[in-house]
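Good morning C.,

I know you're traveling, so I'll keep this short. The sequence:
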Amino acid sequence: MPNTIQPEHTLMQRHPAAYPLPSKLRHTYVVMRHGFSKPNERGRICSTMVEGVQPENGLTEMGRNQSYASSSRLAQYVEAHLSGLNKANSEDVVVVSSPFARARETAEIVCEVLAQNDVVARSLRTTKPRIAEELRERHFGEMDGKSDDKYVLVWKKDIEHGDAQEEYRAESCLKVWQRVYRLVMSLEERLRKPSLVILVAHGDTLQITQTGFDSGCSLSGHRLRSLVQAEWRVLTANPDSYPVIGRQQRSNL
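The tokens, ready to paste straight into the viewer:
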């Protein structure tokens, strides 16, 4: 997505239904945006499940290369993270992906690269990503299928009208966060062992997730820390300020 919105730091109040995460989470969460995709190459918005899961809407060759390069750096981070734990506090590594082809293919590359690292491979729960519909692309309503310069129209409405705005019949930031929130809380409960969880998805979905990790931040400010293709970040739930970014990796475009 083109990074054309630079909203002011003075943001609207967070919507009361944008529930905060617990300040202490059992798991460590990493978010990673998919690599350069065929919809990116065509300059078209592809945000419906029906179209998004189709193989023709997966990664380009450049996107695959980006994903391999970024996954290699991610594997180094994961190895260092695991090596810093004592045996009594060992963790699993879990990769969870949006069902959209461009995210799923990125997540498969992540799993492939992690499995090639001897330290990480011992903690990797599965060599295939888990698929979670909660990580699907934000639906852009009337803008779906149009030129990707139309993203900015929805982003402007986010800033003007806040978390719950649904101009152009787009999915609101609030609805995106509510589904991601359900996923995170489910992972907190269902994963028996403390884990490093890698969430592979889309720009808006993960940027809204970032703002969701900060209970004091309006979700509509998600463009303040935009993610480029194949970039990953480590997030920490923070009830008082913007999410702590422990490590940030950008692809070389």
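Safe travels,
E.
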